[in-house]
Here is the input.
Amino acid sequence: MDARKEGERAHVNNRTTVERKSGRELVTTRTFNAPARIVFEAWTRPELFKRWWVPKSMGMSLLSCEMDVRVGGKYRLEFAPDAMAFFGTYLEVTPHSRLVWTNEEGGEDGPVTTVTFEEKGAKTLLVLHELYPSKEALDAAGTGAADMLSETFTQLDELLVTLGANAGRS
Amino acid sequence: MVQYTQTHFNASFAALSDATRRGVLEQLGRSDASITDLAEKFHMTLTGMKKHVGVLEQAGLVTTEKVGRVRTCKLGSCRLEEEAAWIEKYHQLWAARFDELDKVVEELKRKEKADGRKKRRRARSRE
Here is the structure.
């Protein structure tokens, strides 16, 4: 009961902000009501990561998720229904404070993603920074992402509900 | 999203707050022009005009292209709305992800608390 109340409050207070800092950079921020080590854990353990990375509104489901979280280690995410893959390499892994990885599925136009976890009292400020090789690459990625997200895969909704319910139980 | 829009609006307002820069936009609405053309037309130094064009460029109102030694200025395509729409989508995706992440984080916190209690109990029973 208390936990649920806390969750609701977190939802109200902790806004997600997105800002295009420059032609090549997108910066997203969000605060979490937990110490950095816990938030970091949820980003680096595949079994936890895959529970939040693909929200229902994305209209996709994750087929597989492999993450070798160490400098030079690879990750690979594959999505249903068309086995679209996202993959790259971890460039920096600093426990509880910083993750940097490449996004290589788009060839040379992919961004480098930096996530920092900054503990403030009992909370953690998360800053996700995506740096594209050029303004054109960011513009193109935006258009592509908007197209992708606007597609709906209604046939998967039921499956996602089931997955969501299972995750809630475990 | 709100923040993003504000940043862009602020840049646009700042760019439009100056009479010379509004004049430059009007001029470019009629035809493309080099920085030198614009400097002459507005009786300014090249450096001064470069600064004004820089502000307009930053706000996305003007784009420039250098061919040889001449930098040509034209009105920006100003794809603000289109851009705002996909930033909104991007924002929605991350907001949804982070709401799910909140749930995972709450669960980890509860688990850690429970494990802590267990450990303390074990420690006490060993004493």
Observations:
- The interface with chain B takes residues 3, 6-7, 10-11, 14, 16-20, 26, 28, 30, 32-34, 38-39, 41-42, 48, 51-53, 55-58, 128, 139, 142-143, 145-146, 149-150 of chain A (CB under 8 Å).
- Residues 13-155 of chain A form a domain with the Alpha-D-Glucose-1,6-Bisphosphate; Chain A, domain 4 fold (CATH 3.30.530.20).
- The first strand of chain A starts at residue 17 and ends at 22.
- Confidence is low (pLDDT under 50) at residues 5-12, 146-160 of chain A.
